[in-house]
Amino acid sequence: xxxxxxxxxxxxxxxxxxxxxxxxxxxxxxxxxxxxxxxxxxxxxxxxxxxxxxxxxxxxxxxxxxxxxxxxxxxxxxxxxxxxxxxxxxxxxxxxxxxxxxxxxxxxxxxxxxxxxxxxxxxxxxxxxxxxxxxxxxxxxxxxxxxxxxxxxxxxxxxxxxxxxxxxxxxxxxxxxxxxxxxxxxxxxxxxxxxxxxxxxxxxxxxxxxxxxxxxxxxxxxxxxxxxxxxxxxxxxxxxxxxxxxxxxxxxxxxxxxxxxxxxxxxxxxxxxxxxxxxxxxxxxxxxxxxxxxxxxxxxxxxxxxxxxxxxxxxxxxxxxxxxxxxxxxxxxxxxxxxxxxxxxxxxxxxxxxxxxxxxxxxxxxxxxxxxxxxxxxxxxxxxxxxxxxxxxxxxxxxxxxxxxxxxxxxxxxxxxxxxxxxxxxxxxxxxxxxxxxxxxxxxxxxxxxxxxxxxxxxxxxxxxxxxxxxxxxxxxxxxxxxxxxxxxxxxxxxxxxxxxxxxxxxxxxxxxxxxxxxxxxxxxxxxxxxxxxxxxxxxxxxxxxxxxxxxxxxxxxxxxxxxxxxxxxxxxxxxxxxxxxxxxxxxxxxxxxxxxxxxxxxxxxxxxxxxxxxxxxxxxxxxxxxxxxxxxxxxxxxxxxxxxxxxxxxxxxxxxxxxxxxxxxxxxxxxxxxxxxxxxxxxxxxxxxxxxxxxxxxxxxxxxxxxxxxxxxxxxxxxxxxxxxxxxxxxx
Length: 733
Ligand SMILES: Nc1nc2c(c(=O)[nH]1)N[C@H]1C(S)=C(S)[C@@H](COP(=O)(O)OP(=O)(O)OC[C@H]3O[C@@H](n4cnc5c(=O)[nH]c(N)nc54)[C@H](O)[C@@H]3O)O[C@H]1N2
Ligand SMILES: Nc1nc2c(c(=O)[nH]1)N[C@H]1C(S)=C(S)[C@@H](COP(=O)(O)OP(=O)(O)OC[C@H]3O[C@@H](n4cnc5c(=O)[nH]c(N)nc54)[C@H](O)[C@@H]3O)O[C@H]1N2
Ligand code: SF4
Ligand SMILES: [Mo]
Known about the structure:
Layout: H1 19-22, E1 48-54, E2 63-69, E3 72-78, H2 91-94, H3 97-101, E4 110-112, E5 121-123, H4 126-144, E6 149-152, H5 159-169, H6 183-193, E7 198-199, E8 206-210, H7 222-231, E9 235-239, H8 245-249, E10 252-254, H9 261-274, H10 280-286, E11 287-288, H11 290-297, H12 302-309, H13 313-326, E12 330-332, H14 344-358, E13 367-368, H15 409-418, E14 426-430, H16 434-437, H17 441-449, E15 453-458, H18 463-466, E16 470-473, E17 485-489, E18 493-497, H19 512-522, H20 533-540, H21 547-554, E19 557-558, E20 579-580, H22 584-588, E21 608-611, H23 627-630, E22 637-640, H24 642-647, E23 655-659, E24 664-671, E25 679-681, E26 710-711, E27 718-719, E28 724-731
Parallel strand pairs: 6-14, 8-9, 8-12, 9-10, 11-20, 14-15, 15-16, 21-25, 22-24
Antiparallel strand pairs: 1-2, 2-3, 4-5, 4-16, 7-13, 17-18, 18-19, 21-28, 23-24, 23-28, 26-27
Helix pairs in contact: 4-19, 5-19, 6-14, 9-12, 9-13, 9-14, 12-13, 15-17
Bound molecules: ligand MGD (2 copies), iron/sulfur cluster and molybdenum atom (MO).
């Protein structure tokens, strides 16, 4: 996906490993420890050393320096030369040591003994594990075609090999966490600008943040740049039904009614257009569909919007004027996670349209285009063709404008449960934990029940691994060699990072590359994995002559490519060759070509809408068991407003039962004045099923047990804010 700047193996070609093969240095896992950096104080001390790497606790990949004593990583420091994270490692990044030394880490391959989810395992050898993996994949392929196996490749630097394995194996049923994350945002901006932009937060003077929380949900460098911009005088307006840290640091916070952001942004557009606050020359030259937009937003007055979104009309009008005055150094922040509503693509389209009429595209302090990073796609060969395969993905056409290469986890899961349009019987998971991160946990179990074989490569016994048949221990980011990854960070940089092992893999853990390579050998597909990670990376870097040296010396390579004005003299990658306010392709497909507001559904009686989000200590469902972080928040609680709580007789820290149409959980309640009275919130990562996450036993509740599985109608992005719950008191403190 454009915004991720992954450098996936092209879906059609594959590397010819001729010249590089002879210069091979080392295979993953056996490669020498990254050259220790010169330690001026102890030049001859072989015991203390430092090594560059990149954090893997979330997707930001912040540059770090690992401090190592006697082959034990003792501390992770930020790499001051890593501009994307502005020389920062967050609490989670610092706690990355826990990923390596967590006592609950998976140590050996495990084969399920009892029933699925019963937690009875047999330790097996890697040789046996490979045989079981290969045999099961082969049996499923023989009986149900190659598409009978679903691959969920996660999203880290090695995920590219899982994608490639799936392609070589012959399945097009590949889906990642992205359809639980950001695909409707990507769709909306792609279908407006022809690509997914970055926000030049550092240089902007006015920023509206709606449906994002940059001071807790870190995206680098935006989180840090926003603070710097604020110190320079940039105004920050936050719309969030919760009083988040971003709300606390904002100049203005509005507790918007959930699901109504489109009403706000259509009304902002109404004001900018009716008061002619936009640059007419720019609009005539660059924007497509201004007349249609003018007509369309006539109805969406601030007075109308106030009734929908609970933000006073006079504030909407004032903010629209302030925003237009600050333009083009003004941004409606595109955000990241958009797995929230049934119309998330159209909500984000309404945000993209405001940016378009602000004329901020491709300019300082506005939205910026993708810069050149310069990684090369390795030379590729055709993967094998399997004649008996079905025509398409199992979830094809379950949403009108899905990303074909990504699909939708929600729709794939539904199709597997139905075993329609064809049976899928196997699942290979890498670094994906939908039992904690996919709405409606019960349905994930139902899906697993339909499968003959589930293999899960993880670093811990996640709730999803707990339900697998074969569990394979992964080496961590500090123990493995990874391909290169191209990153962009707003105006900070276009750069390349990579990883080499800081220490040798602990226990019997292995990088997924090695697992796939051996599986490929046993499936007579070895010729497609006839390379090492080192060779692969050399291919990626072949057009960047200084990159290897820079990576060694600085832990990062920067491409000084053009940042602003990338589209000067260039044609936009849209159908109209302009920025599309009105999307004629949507019109052809019977999709609203301009965002049409439809009020979100409401709960009945005393029900609350559940919203999800994150805090600064945890990454989704995967770090709450790390002792360094767990002590910051040992369990999750239900945020609720004291008024409705009082009506229900609930007191602070009372145990409550929260129930939706799909599940029921128990946890303690806490009062927050800064949450809307119609909304409740809980953190993710608790209420685990796995018995092998010691710090989380009987702690809090799992939010995806409650969440109904809805999807954005256009992309199939999971819609995780569409569930209403009842809350009742169970017991006192
Ligand atoms: N600390 C930390 N940082 C992370 C991650 C992490 O797990 N932990 N994950 C990374 C990933 S993968 C992602 S995708 C990004 C996510 O980054 P964000 O998208 O910024 O993160 P969320 O926490 O999901 O923020 C959504 C916010 O929207 C609010 N909200 C809910 N409903 C509505 C609504 O209808 N309107 C408006 N205006 N607001 C609403 C929620 O209360 C919440 O505060 O964070 C990244 N950074
Ligand atoms: N409840 C809830 N659900 C959500 C969200 C939320 O905020 N709350 N956010 C949504 C968003 S934005 C996203 S991006 C998705 C994320 O969804 P996931 O990708 O499923 O979330 P993670 O918690 O990052 O889980 C990744 C898994 O990788 C494992 N892991 C960590 N390091 C390694 C490694 O080196 N190798 C291997 N093999 N495994 C490793 C972890 O143990 C964990 O089981 O969730 C979405 N769903
Ligand atoms: S934001 Fe934090 S967890 Fe994410 S990569 Fe950076 S240091 Fe690691
Ligand atoms: Mo995400």
